[in-house]
Amino acid sequence: MSGMMLLVTACLILGAGPVLAATNLLPDGGFEEGRWTLTTWDHGQARHEVTTEARTGAKAVKLTGIKAEPAAINVLALSPAVDIAAEEEYVLSLWYRTQGNPGASVSVITVKEPFAKGLQQAQQTAYVTQALPPSEGWRPWSWRFRTAPNSVQLVAAVRCGAPGSVWYDDVALLRATEASLRLVEAGTITRLPHSRRLRAALTVGDSPWRLHLFDRETARVLGTQQGRGDQKEVRLSYAAPAEQPLRLVLEEATTGAVLAVEELEAPPLLQLKVTSPRYRNTLYLSRRPKAVRGQLICAADARVRETMRYAVEPAKGEAPRWRPLRAVNAVAVAVPPAFAGRALTLAVRLQGVPGRTRLAHEVKVVPPAPAGTEVLIGDHGETLVNGRPFFPAGFYGVPDSDEARPIPQAGYNVALTYMTDVESCRKWLDRCRQLGLLGIVSVPNPFVAAFDEAALRRAIRAVKEHPALLAYYLFDEPYPSTPGATPAELKRAYDVVADEDPYHPIGVCLNVPDFTDDYIDCYDVVLPDPYPLVKRVQPLTLVSDNLAETRRALAGTKPIWVVPQAFGSDVVEGIGDPEQYRTPTPDQERCMTYLALTQGVQGVVYYCYHVYTRYDAAKAKAGEWPYVLGGHLPDQQPKLWGALVGLGAEMKHLGPALLRPGAESGRTKQVHWRRLPGAQRGAAWLLAVNPEPDAAVVTLPVRAKAAVARFGNGTVTAARDGLRVTLPPLGTLAAELTAP
Predict the structure, then answer these.
(1) pTM of the complete model
(2) CATH superfamily of 387-659
(3) What are the tens digits of pLDDT across the range 127-184?
(4) 270-366: CATH number
(5) CA–CA separation, 220 and 218 (whole Å)
(6) How many C-beta atoms surround the C-beta of residue 280 within 10 A?
(7) CA distances (Å), 96 to each of 64, 104, 198, 203, 321, in order?
(8) Contact, 710 vs 734, CB < 8 A?
(9) Would residue 637 be called left, alpha or beta, if left means φ above 0 and alpha means ψ between -120 and 50 degrees?
């Protein structure tokens, strides 16, 4: 069959009465009337214009970054302000295309009072930015979000932040009740070899709609279906080879607004996935594993599967035990006693499967570490140091001096250095060991751009057996299009480090959640650094929003060690813009930390312990590092350090519970919360935080016989219908719970 054939069937539910189109809340989403404001928010060289190079209609917006001099590029188009409801879900959508990699992004700014005072003066409730990947052709994009408490108005901004051009058209904001697309089935095979069925559920209110299936690589429309009203099920029958990249786009037929976008691939007939061990697809004998476990997944319906059988490959001399092939089949192979091989194979035999008689997945086997500290990541994302659970909590910028002594005294256990010189790092690790800290070193960083495998291996060998080594810091805030920081360059260095030292994880710091998947093969631990306290102050919930996006991208495959903001440029003398970053207050620091903990992070590493107090313009002009160290948090920021001392003690106490699987999270009104399960016969914990400037009184859907507040400034009472919690503005609470 040439190309791809598409047959479409749908069950249409027709609403009674007049048909109402989904309402685009943004005026002039096609830029035909000139109602958007085109502007720049920085001093980089840039250009903005309304162009006739439109997707639909006569006009579109074109934003061009020329050069990031004398400052960053930040050119944008701002929508008129629109009224919204607080704590409601909306969908923002648009079409865009790019030339080069212009740092295209979209921001949503919401406020608790009308924008009549101006964008800069209005008190914000949220300021969230989503990055857009480059696309040479017109590409649809949609984002579903929930407005923050107390929000009354919204402004959308389409942006360009780097050299290159981006075109925007057909921008829409709709209530989420009028727009959703849920993929139920991506491509179940109904007839061999490639005939498939896709199923989706639509929510469109009473609107007429169009559903398009695109070839993601060519942007060719493979099929279109039209209908009206909500759909419990839409079926698309198509033919496609395995792993064909597709894009499903739901449009409102009257306005052409994108309501939802789903990206997918045609699944292979059979997949064999290892579910344990998850970490690096490697079996560590120090953990005394009993088996390798996995799933055999079949993307075919029951009629196709009825003649198919499978059997886990038996030991030599044993007969296979054949079983009917289901959609999902649990499989396992035992680890032989005293196993000393370098690999173990999980394999299944197949009957009745065209062209396949066997599937196999090889798992690397690693003996116990010969020396030093063995640091692994468990199946639930927990850090294990020499087999024991370990919750990393510490700081960037820790010196090789006695000035680091307050860190372990405050209950912290981790330090990170930017030093890359091997001898300096060994000396620094010696100091960490003296202080009872484990260290994260940046030894691999120079080899990402200037790759030298032999030199990188020598550098890793020099530190890998140090007993104070926790992990490697591969890169800080890479951008996929930046030479020397591309995913391919990071992956090249990652592979060498992981091969040379299988006993320590590798971390990468990412400041854009959308990059989580771009670099997914370049790290074992991701360190997001959401900083809300900037010149245009963003809500503290930027922390939880950022981490929620990162968690969705990871889908439980890798752990998150968050990097909360613990610095500000407002204490730096001589800097051009002292308000670029604002030092957190003690309450803000506690709030940001608890927002991260309620998101289920598996580690906390604050940026940063050192405090710069002066900017040397002459050094900057000479191309040297211009920031002058004035000291460290205990002496330079005593109030902030006081809050961090309390947090260190709390995380040390809560560490085992924070790593235990089975936690529940939620948000009730403005309160973010997480219930941490107890150990056997142990008490559970409740963490709660109020990120808003108003007090909160809520009943959380958490049952307990009794609840006792242990940390923070909130109160809690156990009741029949849940836990009644009171939190002051920016308040936090950690409460011990007795099972009901």
Answers:
(1) 0.83
(2) Glycosidases (3.20.20.80)
(3) 888 889 899 999 999 888 888 888 899 999 999 999 999 999 999 998 887 778 899 9
(4) 2.60.40.1930
(5) 5
(6) 17
(7) 13, 9, 26, 24, 54
(8) yes
(9) beta
